[in-house]
Design goal:
Layout lengths: L1 H16 L2 H4 L2 E6 L8 E5 L10 E7 L2 E3 L2 E5 L2 E7 L5 E7 L3 E6 L4 E6 L3 E6 L7 E7 L4 E3 L5 E7 L2 E9 L2 E9 L4 E5 L1
Parallel strand pairs: 1-16, 3-6, 5-11
Antiparallel strand pairs: 1-13, 2-12, 2-14, 3-4, 6-9, 7-8, 7-10, 10-11, 14-15
Length: 187
């Protein structure tokens, strides 16, 4: 019984002494007018702290990279699957350069993205194929819904630069995120 009370007291003390900014967060909401909403990303350029990478997937289907643009946190391993009955090659140019070679249907190869920035994803077997990986510093990003709207949830309060990316072009705005509620951004 004493151990449970001590553990409960410790948990309360930890919460009380955490910086208040860690307990609060606001949302960034808005809209972006682009011809193809599924090919755009809105993100917070830099947020204090370090953020772990994870795992993600990009497929090759119908001689297309799907999704067309994939935002990931720096350090993320992306698996490139081949769902076509054709051979494909995956290579990247830009902020990071790599070549995974040529492989057939049902196979997948992986690459870990450790350099921030935009990477064009291409196939040397099918030069018309193109996709993008956006390697970001933090997980505060969103892709647009079918109506061009987005929500970046639970951003720590503070002053930030928010960027909208579409086909290699960016626009940016300065934003002050509140401790609670949301701020609206319009590009």
């Amino acid at each position: 019984m004493v151990k449970l009370k001590s553990a409960g007291l410790l948990a309360v003390l930890v919460v009380l002494f955490l910086p208040s900014s860690r307990l609060r967060a606001g949302d960034i909401v808005g809209a972006l007018a682009v011809p193809k909403a599924d090919q755009a990303v809105v993100y917070v350029e830099k947020v204090p702290g370090t953020f772990p990478g994870g795992n993600a997937k990009m497929d090759q289907r119908g001689k297309l990279f799907i999704p067309y643009v994939l935002p990931v946190v720096q350090g993320t391993a992306v698996e490139f699957h081949n769902s076509d009955s054709l051979q494909h090659n995956v290579f990247g140019v830009g902020a990071d350069k790599f070549n995974l070679g040529t492989y057939t249907q049902g196979m997948a190869r992986s690459y870990t993205f450790n350099k921030l920035g935009e990477v064009s994803i291409l196939c040397n077997v099918h030069p018309e194929m193109e996709g993008y990986i956006l390697v970001l510093q933090n997980p505060y990003f969103a892709q647009l819904d079918a109506n061009g709207k987005f929500r970046i949830a639970s951003v720590p309060p503070g002053d930030y630069v928010v960027k909208a990316w579409y086909h290699g072009k960016t626009k940016q705005q300065n934003v002050k995120v509140p401790a609670t509620g949301s701020v609206t951004v319009s590009f």
